[in-house]
């Protein structure tokens, strides 16, 4: 090794152990591997005393003589300046100089993150490269899993939304209405329930076709949504039957005004392909406060009876359930 120049030695070490230090007999750093230099790009290592730049933590050594005596044995070091990255090393004599080969040990993942290192910063045979491949594979797998979970969650939300939505009108369906009623009764919320049936709708279907009927249903649904508040519920529960759940309302005069507005708007002609579709509406209304213990089934049955009372009265009107 006496015939090997320091330049040749450095080139060899840069490839085989890119985290090395070359020390002269006075403990001065005369060479450093490219990866080690990357850890301190703004602070010179070459030309500095080893014990000035590094602290020997285990065993705790403070003299060069004690350091030279540790040849071939494991050393624990750390930088004296921040970040005080922990390192492991082995020191060997190589002709007139000493070579201290370093590694990160168990702190490798933190160090790779802190210093933005890649597999190019390590020797080709270093097991760290295998670890980096595993980390990349794990990251890729986790990202793929995250995206899959997002798609599954999106599909679940869409399926749940579809299960509670009437596809033609975009309103809630009977299943969703049952859920809302059960929840409101469970928390003791005061509410009114309106059962709405479109008068003369069958006539539209029979004379103008189902496409016209669908158009009328969509228009009626829009009117009902516009006439209630955001927190109220509008559900399509049958072909031309709807249920409105109005939270916090127990005043019959208020409900009568809402019913009158609905009937008035629903009676306005609905244009379709150059013709006019004409319908009206009959309503049956019940209030949760009229029951000692409200139940969805009973309220719906009573609202249905009130609805048919409106039909018998000549349609285009509303009726409250009477015990």
Please tag this protein with its features.
Alpha-Beta Plaits, five-stranded mixed beta sheet, 11 helices, rod-shaped, DGC-Regulatory_Protein, Diguanylate cyclase
Report on this structure.
The protein has 323 residues and is of the alpha+beta class. The protein folds into 3 domains: 6-125, Beta-Lactamase (2-Layer Sandwich), CATH 3.30.450; 131-160; 174-320, Alpha-Beta Plaits (2-Layer Sandwich), CATH 3.30.70. Helices cover 44% and strands 22% of the residues. The protein has helices spanning 6-16, 34-39, 50-53, 64-68, 108-115, 127-163, 174-186, 201-208, 210-227, 252-266, 296-312, and strands spanning 20-23, 29-32, 54-58, 74-79, 86-94, 97-103, 191-199, 233-236, 241-247, 270-272, 275-277, 280-287, 318-320. The strands form 3 sheets. It has a 6-stranded antiparallel β-sheet with strand order 2-1-6-5-4-3. It has a 5-stranded mixed β-sheet with strand order 8-9-7-12-13, sandwiched between helices. It has a two-stranded antiparallel sheet with strand order 10-11. The longest helix is centred in the middle third of the chain and has 37 residues, at 127-163. The model has no long low-confidence stretch (mean pLDDT 89). Residues 189-323 form the GGDEF domain. This is Diguanylate cyclase. It comes from Thalassobius vesicularis.
